[in-house]
Design goal:
The chain has 330 residues and is an alpha/beta fold. Helix content is 43%, strand content 17%. The chain has one domain: 3-Layer(aba) Sandwich (Rossmann fold).
Length: 330
């Protein structure tokens, strides 16, 4: 049976479901005829990301650290996609990156990533349901080799990467100790519509303010593995329905290295501007120079990224411009 057939009619809990990746996942699950419960405290998620008109969708404003609430929602569900994490809203805190935020507020980051995840794992264990945990490539730190295989050393250089790695360890402990079906997805650089932070969004914001000059942190030679959000969502769904995934860890990217410099020039061209581009030569603490996935394990279970970078950037830019136009008309 296909992933679509296996999930049809299931009751799915999505933590962080009003966020960028979460809301795209929710939309896809609803299209697969799932009944979806979204748990989100809206610290960075947005209620307007969700199709609240759908009778198949229930929204609960709450925190994953609320033990009673997590248990109640887990009992109503057949599966959990756990995406909630500590990401302050860009609109409130200014442009930036989750790693920067975790460096300035490591205790808050740990509390959500570790205690919150532990709470979800315990609730899922009591309800006897599967958990798909969205981790991050930041657990690898500065890798010695590229592309990165899942078996390589994890040595995070940011509080965000450290807290996610600790949460991963709890996932594996619950799998071994309590026989909880849980799978870990290490997401690389996901981008696309509804993303209101990180590199691409920051570039478009800067170009809107000044289309003639663009300052970018770092050398521009940093290499990343950019995966379009719909591809990331399909990967998560595939892991949710793959029986042999339980207790295992998978890189979720494209396996294609792309320099920040290429992203910058491509976005400027697609936006129709020719700015003077200045690279600062330095970046924030915890920023990694090269981060590219080996996705051989995902390919073995049938994963195939379908959206090329240029097409993805065009879709993201189109969405950004539509949002800008709506705000101007409002």
């Amino acid at each position: 049976m296909s992933s679509s057939e296996l999930l049809a009619g299931k009751r799915i809990l999505v933590t962080g479901g009003a966020g960028f990746i979460g809301s795209n996942l929710v939309e896809r699950l609803l299209a697969l005829n799932c009944r979806v419960i979204v748990l989100d405290n809206l610290s960075s998620g947005r209620i307007d990301n969700l199709p609240l008109h759908s009778r198949q969708l229930s929204f609960v404003k709450g925190d994953i650290r609320n033990q009673e609430l997590a248990r109640k929602l887990a009992r109503k569900s057949d599966m959990v996609f756990h995406l909630a994490e500590f990401i302050p809203n860009t609109e409130q805190s200014g442009p930036g990156h989750v790693i920067r935020f975790s460096t300035s507020k490591p205790i808050a980051d740990l509390d959500v990533s570790v205690r919150g995840t532990l709470n979800i794992l315990e609730s899922a264990s009591q309800a006897h349901i599967k958990v798909v945990f969205a981790s991050t490539a930041a657990v690898y730190g500065e890798p010695l080799e590229s592309p990165i295989e899942e078996t390589m050393l994890t040595n995070p250089i940011s509080p965000y990467g450290a807290s996610k790695l600790a949460a991963e360890i709890y996932c594996r402990v619950f799998n071994r100790t309590y026989d909880l079906p849980v799978v870990i997805a290490r997401l690389f650089n996901v981008y696309g519509p509804r993303q209101r932070k990180y590199l691409m969004h920051d570039i478009l914001l800067k170009l809107r303010k000044n289309p003639n000059k663009l300052e970018i942190l770092g050398s521009g030679n940093q290499q990343r593995d950019f995966i379009y959000v719909s591809d990331a969502v399909e990967g998560l769904i595939l892991l949710a329905t793959e029986e042999k995934s339980c207790g295992d860890t998978f890189n979720l990217g494209t396996g294609i290295p792309t320099s920040v410099r290429r992203v910058v020039t491509s976005m400027a061209k697609i936006a129709g501007v020719k700015p003077e581009i200045e690279y600062t030569g330095h970046s924030w603490k915890g920023d990694i120079e090269i981060l590219v996935a080996d996705i051989a394990k995902m390919r073995k279970i049938g994963f195939r990224p379908r959206t090329c970078l240029l097409k993805g950037i065009k879709e993201f830019t189109k969405w950004f411009q539509q949002v800008e136009q709506q705000q101007t008309c409002a």
